[in-house]
């Protein structure tokens, strides 16, 4: 069986990476749009409706427009933008979210691909909320350090042009306290209080780590670091891409520094619990262009099509 796939936004950061993942797949035929027609609505509509799977790798407004062009009931749309991540008629494309999430991805023709920061945040918090260790009302804060490819073509060009010394240092942003990932972080963890979320972009291409500090006294009475670690390890046991590292990961502690880039060029997710007797820092590491974007989109496509979930992914 060969599936037809169209990538709307094939020249962008996410679209190019998806095409790389698909390049060696004998079960996929990629429908290419002529470069000069890549913003021609009629041609995009034709290809969107000719596809079994259409990836939208576009800014939000263009993604909404593209979704509205699809009238073939057999086309599965996987939207990489923020446009549909909390929409009730779209399924969140994070197979590891909950035990029934793969069934939902398989059944739906509208899949929203999670944001990079929110992927890491949700994978840390959702199991702890589900296990009752973190109350849904707990006010949670998180920081994220990310490579500049998360900002798309414009930010990549800005960093790679060189010459601006401000870009040599990490740059905190999201200081309006309204980062676009906060709604999906709340919606898919069950946290009723929107997290305070502060990302930082640094002078490296890719790699991302979200950190969530927790006071154990604010968790379910008696929660220990072992209990936090066990809830995460139990949830992700058997997951192909999520690896819960040993409590207080010795390799990281010995080096003294956390390696944000260690999952680059993979679809892997590493989950960490660092803790003392009264406090913990949870950390989650991904490649923002891998599990944070294009890898996740291909994984959801695989789940939807019912083929091996890791096909084409490392
Ligand atoms: N970069 C990342 O790590 C991640 C990005 N995303 C999301 O994925 C989407 C794409 O992001 P990214 O790949 O980084 O963005 P880029 O800016 O790198 O690429 C976007 C592409 O869309 C094209 N485009 C813009 N408007 C239209 C239109 N109306 N019709 C057809 N094509 C259009 C652009 O064309 P042109 O080349 O002419 O500008 C460009 O090639 C965004 O919604 C983003 O939020 C999601 C997860 C991670
Ligand atoms: C460095 C940088 O700007 N990163 C982007 C996130 C990119 C991403 O994965 O999120 P979307 O899918 O929602 O675009 C940001 O924080 O807005």
TrEMBL record:
The catalytic site is made up of 116
**Origin: domain of life:** Bacteria
Entry keyword set: Amino-acid biosynthesis, Arginine biosynthesis, Cytoplasm, NADP, Oxidoreductase
Q: Which InterPro entries match?
A: AGPR, AGPR_dimerisation_dom, AGPR_type-2, NAD(P)-bd_dom_sf, Semialdehyde_DH_NAD-bd
What Enzyme Commission number(s) does the record list for this chain? 1.2.1.38
Tell me which Gene3D superfamilies the record gives. Answer: Dihydrodipicolinate Reductase, domain 2, NAD(P)-binding Rossmann-like Domain
Q: What general EC class does the enzyme of this chain belong to? A: oxidoreductase
Task: Please give the function described in this protein's UniProt entry.
Answer: Catalyzes the NADPH-dependent reduction of N-acetyl-5-glutamyl phosphate to yield N-acetyl-L-glutamate 5-semialdehyde.
Q: What name does UniProt use for this protein? A: N-acetyl-gamma-glutamyl-phosphate reductase
Name of the gene encoding the protein in the UniProt record: argC
């Amino acid at each position: 069986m060969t599936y037809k796939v169209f990538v709307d936004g094939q020249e962008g950061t996410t679209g190019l990476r998806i095409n790389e993942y698909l390049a060696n797949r004998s079960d996929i035929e990629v429908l290419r749009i002529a470069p000069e027609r890549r913003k021609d609505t009629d041609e995009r509509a034709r290809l969107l409706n000719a596809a079994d799977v259409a990836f939208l790798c576009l800014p939000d407004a263009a993604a909404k427009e593209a979704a509205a062009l699809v009238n073939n009931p057999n086309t599965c749309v996987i939207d990489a933008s923020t446009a549909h991540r909390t929409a009730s008629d779209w399924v969140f494309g994070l197979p590891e979210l909950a035990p029934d999430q793969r069934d939902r991805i398989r059944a739906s023709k509208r899949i929203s691909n999670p944001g990079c920061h929110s992927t890491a945040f949700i994978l840390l918090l959702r199991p702890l909320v589900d296990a009752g260790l973190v109350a849904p009302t707990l006010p949670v804060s998180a920081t994220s350090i990310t490579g500049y490819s998360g900002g798309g073509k414009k930010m990549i060009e800005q960093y790679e042009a060189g010459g601006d010394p401000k870009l040599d240092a990490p740059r905190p942003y999201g200081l309006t306290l309204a980062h676009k990932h906060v709604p999906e972080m709340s919606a898919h963890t069950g946290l009723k209080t929107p997290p305070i979320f502060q990302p930082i972009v640094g002078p490296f291409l890719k790699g991302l780590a979200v950190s969530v500090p927790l006071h154990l006294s604010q968790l379910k009475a008696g929660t220990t670091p072992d209990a936090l670690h066990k809830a995460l390890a139990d949830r992700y046991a058997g997951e192909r891409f999520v690896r819960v590292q040993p409590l207080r990961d010795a390799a990281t502690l010995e080096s003294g520094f956390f390696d944000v880039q260690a999952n680059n060029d993979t679809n892997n997710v590493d989950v960490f619990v660092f803790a003392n007797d009264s406090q913990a820092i949870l950390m989650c590491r991904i490649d923002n262009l891998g599990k944070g974007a294009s890898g996740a989109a291909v994984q959801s496509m695989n789940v939807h099509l019912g083929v091996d979930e890791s096909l084409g992914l490392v």
